[in-house]
Design goal:
The chain has helices at residues 17-20, 72-89, 96-103, 107-115, 121-128, 138-142, 151-157; strands at residues 2-3, 7-12, 39-50, 53-58. It is of the alpha+beta class and 161 residues long. The protein is elongated and about 80 Å long. The protein folds into 2 domains: 2-58, no CATH class; 72-157, no CATH class. It starts with a strand and ends with a helix. A hairpin with a 2-residue loop joins strand 3 (39-50) and strand 4. Helices cover 37% and strands 16% of the residues. The chain has a 4-stranded antiparallel β-sheet with strand order 1-2-3-4, with no helix packed on it.
Length: 161
């Protein structure tokens, strides 16, 4: 196997395949130097950093992205943004420092997460349904800074094209 920047290559020796796919495979009986020419199968793929891990994203037969999975960290951020928004709306003008103490977070974190309550509804919905771009993770979302007020620009900035 060879993982490259935008492909995943697998070398296969067709003569060995019948022995390898048997249900009663005994690895010790496989030849150490298989005979016959090797064929290289190349599949379009790319490595993507998602949170704390790196994933190999292999495109489907029609070039479509692989199905995305819910990102609990992103979903927690969206829920926390909603909670902080509710806190602000019912605060009767309390300063951010007091609200942050009430929420149990630092004022800096409070403002970064609170900004997420102004994301486009389609972005919030996509995150909650696990349909966010594979490149988007909680760290990237929090470090994005201020978001444009236009929802279309938000979509572009976060990779929802």
């Amino acid at each position: 196997m060879d993982i490259r920047r935008d492909t995943f290559d697998v070398s296969v020796r067709p003569a060995v395949l019948p022995a390898v796919v048997k249900p009663d495979l005994d690895v010790r009986r496989l030849p150490t130097r298989p005979e016959g020419p090797a064929q290289v199968l190349s599949v379009p793929a790319r490595l993507r950093r998602t949170g704390m891990e790196t994933k190999l994203l292999i495109q489907g037969a029609l070039g479509a992205e692989p199905p995305r999975r819910s990102d609990r960290s992103l979903q927690r951020l969206v829920a926390q943004a909603r909670h902080l928004s509710d806190l602000v709306m019912t605060s009767n003008g309390k300063p951010v420092q007091d609200l942050a103490v009430e929420a149990g977070v630092s004022p800096s974190y409070f403002t970064r997460v609170f900004r997420l309550s102004f994301l486009a509804p389609e972005i919030t919905k996509a995150i909650l349904q696990g349909r966010q771009p594979s490149e988007l993770n909680a760290i990237k979302l929090l470090s994005a800074g201020r978001f444009p007020s236009a929802w279309l620009d938000q979509r572009r900035q976060l990779g929802f094209n």
